[in-house]
Specification:
CATH superfamily of the largest domain: Glutaredoxin
Strand content: 25-35%
Oligomer: single chain
Radius of gyration: 26 Å
Largest sheet: 6 strands, mixed
CATH topology of the largest domain: Glutaredoxin
Number of strands: 21
Number of helices: 10
Mean pLDDT: 90
């Protein structure tokens, strides 16, 4: 927070907290080492007052956590922040800053619903003030990737601007104790747009004369992962895959040939396929099918990859309907919650095939639906979706059997030739 200025006019004024007077006009972004002005928050919720000033939290380490309702990783961080706030109590003040509220249409009602939903699914109290629709904070601390963390020490000085990985008890305790902490500076590239070609007009680099290409690079630091198809009218003009693993890129290229989750996909060289790359394909007007053909050719050319099917006898979980099945889900609205931190995971009013496919995302062994059940089901799931015994017990309660068997199944082999 910006260092406060003390003036002596005839008498010595009492020493006040070291927040600077707010600047009257233009706002420039602040950096590590700067002092933060005594900003007034005009829109505050989840707090004892609907307004506040930064100086209200004097004498504490302050952590500004920038988030938005569309950011799943931001919301998943809230229980962790809540535990830190409870641990350090009056020595720490976390403030949840809803960034660019007008763009995301995050108002007090929407924010309250989000907090209530997180409280209902976790053991979090979330007694943390939320500031929203505060353009000054967005201007002082611009960011393109969230969560975005601003650390302000007891003297109002910015001690760090980081990502969420730096938010831990050790760093907080060190700063509270007045020790110097080397916080990793978060890197943002505000002008980068993954939907535009790489290296053209400064978008990650220069390359304005490129007409047609396929490109592979190492991961780009400071950029979020993204994958998509570029189009012009009804034609495909390119494809991009930013900061994705080679396995993910292969699955995208062979999406029709690989209909299964990873528990039926076998990779010959995991270290190679887990490595992260950027790939770009720029084409003249073409079709989606032709584009995926070019992508497959590039994977073979650059990485010597082959994809094939074969039969293997393997352990699996077979879902069957016992007689009679107990749950038709007629009295529930469709709803599901399988978030990692949720204490009450469930899938309500969906077909058994959908439930099995969803659980295959988490199961190390394949789950096969052989229920032949025409109605939807509702099921309360165990905390760990990899807990086979817990899943079996959950299905048994609603009249289904999840049985371990050995079956000959079709699997996918992705090889490094």
């Amino acid at each position: 927070m910006k260092k406060s200025l003390f003036f002596i006019k005839g008498i010595l004024w009492p020493v006040l907290y070291a927040f600077a007077q707010s600047p009257p006009e233009s706002i420039m972004p602040l950096a590590v080492g700067d002092y933060v002005p005594d900003i007034t928050f005009k829109n505050v919720t989840n707090y004892k007052s609907s307004t506040a000033r930064l100086s209200d939290f004097k004498g504490k380490l302050i952590l500004l956590d920038f988030w938005s309702s569309w950011c799943g990783s931001c919301l998943s961080l809230f229980p962790h922040l809540d535990s830190l706030q409870r641990k350090f109590k009056d020595e720490l003040q976390i403030i949840l800053v809803n960034t660019k509220s007008r763009i995301s249409k995050d108002d007090e009602t929407k924010i309250t619903k989000i907090l209530d939903r997180i409280r209902s699914r976790t053991d979090s109290e979330l007694n943390i003030p939320v500031v929203y629709d505060c353009e000054k904070l967005d201007e002082y601390f611009p960011c393109t990737i969230i969560p975005h963390e601003v650390w302000i020490d007891k003297n109002g000085k910015i001690a760090g601007i980081t990502d969420a990985a730096e938010v831990n008890a050790d760093n907080i305790q060190a700063l509270i104790n007045g020790r110097k902490v080397k916080l990793k500076l978060k890197k943002d590239l505000p002008d980068f747009d993954p939907a535009k070609p790489l290296f053209i007009n400064g978008n990650g680099g220069d390359g304005s004369e490129i007409l047609c290409r396929s490109l592979v690079s190492s991961a780009i630091d400071g950029v979020s992962g993204a994958t998509g198809i570029r189009r012009s009218a009804d034609k495909v003009t390119g494809f991009y895959s930013i900061n994705q693993s080679l396995l993910s890129l292969t699955r995208t290229a062979y999406n029709k040939e690989i209909p299964y989750e990873n528990n039926r996909v076998f990779v010959s060289n995991k270290a190679k396929f887990n490595k992260v790359y950027c790939y770009e394909l720029i084409l003249y007007d073409t079709t989606v099918e032709a584009m995926f053909g070019f992508l497959k050719d590039d994977l073979k050319r650059y990485f010597n990859i082959s994809v094939k099917k074969e039969k293997r006898k393997m352990r699996c979980l077979v879902l069957k309907a016992a007689l009679p099945a107990k749950n038709t889900a007629a009295d529930r609205l469709p709803d599901l919650d399988i978030e990692e931190a949720s204490l009450r995971k469930h899938i309500y009013n969906y077909p058994p095939s959908f439930v099995a496919n969803l659980l295959n995302d988490y199961s190390a062994i394949p789950i096969i639906d052989e229920t032949n059940f025409s109605k939807n089901i509702s099921i309360d799931l165990p905390f760990s979706l990899t807990d086979i015994a817990g899943l079996q017990a959950a299905f048994k309660k609603i009249g289904f059997e999840l049985k371990e068997e050995n079956r000959e199944l079709e699997v996918i082999l992705i090889k490094d030739n």
